[in-house]
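User: Continuing from earlier, I have the next pair ready.

Assistant: Great, send them over.

User: Here they are, in order.

Assistant: Folding the first of the pair now:
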Amino acid sequence: MPPSLGDVPVDGGSRACSAGENGVCLHEKPDYDDPTCTYNCYASVPPLPSLSCRSGSSLVLDSVPFKDSEKVRRVVTAVVKGFSIGAGLKGGLALFSILVRLRRRLSASKLKPELFSNREAIILALKETLRYGLFLGTFAGTFASVDEIIGALGGHRRTAKWRHLLAGAVAGPSILLTGPKTQHTSLAIYILMRAAVLASRCGIKSKRFGKICRPLTWKHGDIFLMCLSSSQILSAYILKQESLPPSYKSFLNSHGGKNLTILQGVKEIASGIPFTNLEAIETYYKSLGVDIKLDPNMKIPCSIIHGKQSCSSHGISFLIQAYKRALPVYLPVYLVPALIVHRQGLLKRPYTILGKSLLGTSRSSLFLSAYCASAWVWTCILFRILKRCNIPMVALGTFPTGLALAIEKKSRRIEISLYCLARAIESFFTCMTDAGYLPKARTLNRIDVLIFSISTSIIMHCYAVERDVFRSKYLNVLDWVFGVPPPPSETPRHKSS
């Protein structure tokens, strides 16, 4: 009697099957007495379909049939879930933005708000929500489709080392769905930073690159990056706002808490040019009930920044106001992911999960408010100590502002520092280009799409092959959208078995 499948030697011993060109057993049915079969190919009755055998290796199940309906279901599920995440996150942020806009307009004047501009803002928010939903839905669907096609044609094990690289790169251009004329350089650079972090974690694990990547494990490297980024971002916020992305510039103007006339006055004194808007600054303070007369020969801009307030009292009052502005920003950041990532646990432990979300919201709001307040406090201290104000001092005074990142959880620090670093890099190169230190010619009109595609290629490869370099919360989201990928030595069709 022929042995059963449980007796098949799969340890690369002296019994395996002679294989054809693609590693598939040449025998339609195992012939246990055929001398041409050097090791004998065992199978139970009825035989498994399309068994693939390789000399000197374990049994491979690359050609196991898989229903097309299940492949289609995976792609459709990825599209739907990707769309829900994109639309949910963008829609949540847009909703809070509209609510804050309405609140400010109603509090600024008792007159009837302009319905047209509000309606226009709502329409724009709906368009952005749909675009980002389509973007992430298309990205997820494209990745799943390419992954399935390559796996079906080339075998899941044979293509495991490069399939996800290609699928991630092919899915990258879906970012164009957010707007064909909208540049996403900041987003692309941020995703590239994320890909670089994952690649560095892979390098730390490897024997070849471990020593080179070891400095990247510095305990407080995230705070140093934040300080470095803050020096560029906040200097640009005061001196050259046009070097910042429009949305980020609007964000800084909102949370910086200073009127544009005040920023213009600080810019003029730091640049060493005559004042052009002192009367406008005085008029602004009068609208707040502060009667002040500014000295055109002043050496430091403290009176421009906070009027008749002292530097210390201004820092405290600004911190309180900044905290109120920060709360609406972080509520959707914590609550929306809680509904997606912890959707199952939310029904079992609603108070625990919602409590952690509210605690995270409070903590992150304190970070943002302390960050903005300390920017003015540090610069005021430096100006008063050295009795002067210039561009290098603005950059130096905004450097320690990044220390406020220590308020945040350790797991979030690297995310925030990389986010700010991406914008700092873009702003820095824009300033260098405008100053004539770098050429203005651009050989690629959509360099952001290229950078994004390369980055997603690296990220999706790490997700499928080097899963341990991801944090669990990101794996939860990616697994929910794409499904848990099996190890390279295992086919997706037999992971459950």
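And the other member of the pair:
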Amino acid sequence: MAFRLFSREEKQDPAPGKKASATGRVVAFAAGAGRPVWSARDSGSLTRGGFVGNPVGFRSVKLIAEAAAAVPLVCEDGARRFDSHPVLGLLRRPNPGQGRAELFEALFGQMLLSGNGYLEAVGLAASGLPEELHVLRSDRVSIVPGADGWPVAFEYAVGGRRHRFDMAGSPDPICHIKSFHPQDDHYGLSPMQAAAVALDVHNSASAWSKALLDNAARPSGAIVYRGVDGQGVLSAEQYDRLVGEIEMNHQGARNAGRPMLLEGGLDWKPMGFSPSDMEFHQTKQAAAREIALAFGVPPMLLGIPGDATYANYAEAHRAFYRLTVLPLAARVAASVAWWLSEHLGEEVSLKPDPDGIPALAEERDQQWRRVSEASFLSNAEKRALLGLPPLAEG
């Protein structure tokens, strides 16, 4: 019997008697069937301002993407766990220019920046799997919905040229992984969009500080001259001599901290930051914490001061993996496994292996200790609690 588990017949124009979503035609009418649906936010501007031009956004994306890409994956079919499998072989070297970590880091990065990740299948191996996998830039991809609301094609546009990926057949040439978006039927919502206001505040604060240094930077102090006759004006010779003495003896790292000897009615007035300047600096730190909050990164891991949510760095590190990295890695691995199963012709699953994450070693040891000491459980029940497949008979 032909493998029909992943049949896409339900995505075609439903004939009488076939199952189809009642809202599909409404979604297609609202989006415009046959026309590209554009994202509500300009992902290119968000990437430039929130990732390329913002250190907090850059570090948040890099921290999540690198951590999630390094999470080990296990391949199972429901009854056994594979040490070697064609899916694992494909992911180990998905294309000549990338390994597994590089591919998934790019995929996670695209999802964090735009809310959408796209994997392209290239070629066909003997096993039915693609020969290569490539990550597509999400800002170049647009979705073309059909009459039933499902995507019938993906358009990839570069420099005025377009390539259309047909999604009518099976298996799909593109795997689209998107984040939840409450107001968009086709595109996902990225943390960068949620943190857009905080990013603007943080970037504006940095630009203000740079402009202050360039145009109106406050010196450490001022030399005030009070003449004997009440006229606070130095002669040209006196002025040149004073400037030369300051440049030679009181500027630069070599002269840092050297006391200044003033004479002839000269007085030193130190200067500092006003309370409004200090409040502006705190506003910038608050914006940085909001950016980290949108991405799910504990501010402590980014070196942002003033945050005491977690007792120590190790606790913040565990929370980062449990609340941010593992949910993202599990969702992406499940989507990729289902897509590759469609190519392979049999269902396999991919899921993260928390036992291989050093940051969760303490939690793993505690769980294994509790399960192993439970004498009322059988070995099969203990393996099930630990997420391990059952042993083969005999």
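Worth noting for the second one:
DSSP finds twelve helices and eleven strands in the chain. The first strand starts at residue 73 and ends at 76.
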